[in-house]
Write a structure and sequence with these properties.
Three copies of one chain form a homotrimer. Chain A has helices at residues 45-60, 92-112, 128-131, 162-170, 172-179, 187-192, 205-216, 221-232, 236-254, 257-272; strands spanning 21-26, 29-34, 65-70, 117-121, 125-126, 138-142, 146-148, 185-186, 198-200. The first copy, chain A, is α/β, with parallel strands linked by helices. Chains in contact: A-B, A-C, B-C. At the A-C interface, α4, α5, α9 and α10 of A face α8 of C.
């Protein structure tokens, strides 16, 4: 079935087994589902790697396009902040460097993906799962979805090429409200700003979206891939440069007092609840 | 009168005789009308040449700006697919090369046009007549107009610089729905996405639009031309590069099996009706 | 108080005395108010210099961000056309050169501003006070505000980088209507086009806006500044080039007959009232 049930860890035919995601291929569509619903699909280090790997495979397989979605009620709650708590013996600098390298490689996979890439946003989205939407070709969202990038609350700065894609997509003012001033958008607001391509009622979301995508899967494969590549070819170099700049800046941010204090305060507040 | 009657082939004063278009100049406006209403103004090889020629002349004449519109109920149904059926003795490669050269030269005329360029979209628009709208300065449309670019249905890929102008104008998602997934827009949808500047009720369309344009024709000519050129100067080089890329890709597409099969199937379906 | 009373010329603590603007700093916000309400805050040569100076200082002070607003009922009526009537003994060319240099330096200050820059548009805005809004990070407007750039009526051409920022923000058609064809926008129209970030009812405008900004002032300073810089770093060079092109073009325009006649006619019409 199109919308996988929770924690279904059966491997898909023709795809290697993944631990943190589910990958399947049907109707000429490769489907990648974040599969950590008990943590709102927060992205662990392992997941960054597996998603990147799955995208690389999907780019080469027989599918016409690929879809990213989430198992459960959430699309993705962003970077798992526990990623910052396992400081290696080499120290914080090592952790910051490794994290920046991992993030840069992860985002590169989206920039370079050679076929249409579709996000099926099945619930609330936060952080990196929002910013990378600017690199997707289609973004379909349930009306229950929200979009939130609270970077400055955590003393951080934008990633996923959002410092480039968001202002171009929605204008400087609206991008600033999201990326600097932590404004959370409803699905309809996100659609008006171009971050979401179409919003569907939650009750019929899965049915309507997958019916449409199934139909899209019947179109000429090469025509779609080449058309996407035409659209992107002149942006790729710029996007990679932006990705590098953003990761460099985050490296500095992660070692800054502003960021450290904000993350400590996040965990303290959570502990109080 | 401003809206020419069908098939009026009387030459306009001060303009050379054209076979497939009507060109006239009044109120400091050069008006170019596609004049093949019995075929919904589908563009033949001859029309590509004549439109290009008319634009070149309009760029040099005394007018303040130029207008493109269609005779009859349609704006333009796009490239006449019969252009693909007259395969020259030299073979398909020759036809693909010639077609790509013709298209590139045609689109270049729009990129380089030195004065404001206005589209008066008097009815449905398809294919190349939609994609070049991204190169116009103003696009006024009747509410009866629709906008459709079914490239992948025909195994083809975008032209008219739309792979560049559409994502910038309407965002990646909406551009992808049009350019890859064959979505047809109403006039109001096209206006919300920036493809159309303003929509008018069909009953008053011709009257309202030409009254407004007549007024615009009284403004300082150089101020308008120089202002347009300021807006465009930094994009021209990029647009020409995109135009070349798109025509190269179409050359490959026209010789592909995907495209051949799609066009044959188009004619077979039409024959059945 | 946040909304200064008219003509309050008391110098702010920690800021040098200005003649034509009011500068104050509270709640980690540097506030710059145009203070020539009796002339609708039309910008004199002195004001260009003082605003530029104040921005330079605000970029270096302890504030988290800076705000530009106007004293009285108007935001700003644009360039004071009397700036063109004091022709120096060296002649018109000297005046045109000096004006272009002054304008270029003024606009550069907005391009280079290193922190978030917020416009609080307290009433109608005209000319240069509209075009520079494309260089702000947030633009909050009262519903009483209007936005008008009647360049071609005055035989002139766009400045403030609007020939670059407006088409990207609102699309070519809407930018052309404003920058070439003198279309005046309401606050809500400007918001739909991305020129304004949010519109507030005039009755609660000052209260709502300053409450929100006070809250924004509590966010981590470096995170905000670095995030803005990430967004802008790849555009700066281009914006400076556009600024130079626009000022070059205006120098030519100011010496043209079209422009001279249009300005003479402006003063004659005003004298008749």
């Amino acid at each position: 079935s199109e919308s996988p049930t929770k924690n279904n860890t059966e491997p898909s035919i023709g795809h290697k087994m993944y631990e943190t995601i589910q990958v399947s291929c049907e109707d000429r569509i490769t489907k990648i589902f974040l599969n950590r619903p008990e943590k709102k699909n927060a992205i662990t280090l392992k997941m960054y790697e597996e998603i990147g790997k799955a995208l690389e495979e999907a780019g080469k397989d027989e599918s016409v396009f690929a879809v990213l979605s989430g198992v459960g009620d959430y699309f993705c709650s962003g970077n798992d902040l526990n990623n910052f708590t396992n400081i290696p013996p080499e120290g914080k600098e090592k952790m910051a460097n490794d994290s920046a390298d991992l993030l840069e490689a992860f985002v590169s996979k989206f920039i370079d993906f050679p076929k249409p890439l579709v996000a099926v946003v099945n619930g609330p989205a936060t952080g990196i799962s929002v910013t990378i939407l600017g690199l997707f070709d289609l973004v379909y969202a349930t009306d229950r979805a929200t979009f939130h990038t609270p970077f400055s609350q955590l003393g951080q700065s934008p990633e996923g090429c959002s410092s480039y894609t968001f202002p171009r997509m929605m204008g400087l003012g609206k991008a600033t409200e999201m990326l600097l001033f932590n404004k959370k958008l409803t699905a309809h607001e996100a659609c008006n700003l171009g971050l979401v391509t179409e919003v569907f009622p939650d009750s019929s979301f899965q049915k309507e979206v997958w019916e449409r995508l199934k139909e899209y899967g019947t179109l000429p494969k090469n025509s779609l891939a080449f058309s996407k590549q035409l659209i992107r070819v002149n942006e790729k170099e710029k996007l990679h440069a932006v990705n590098i700049q953003e990761c460099e800046r985050l490296k500095e941010r992660w070692l800054s007092e502003e960021c450290m204090n904000a993350i400590i305060s996040f965990f303290q507040n959570r502990a109080k609840l």
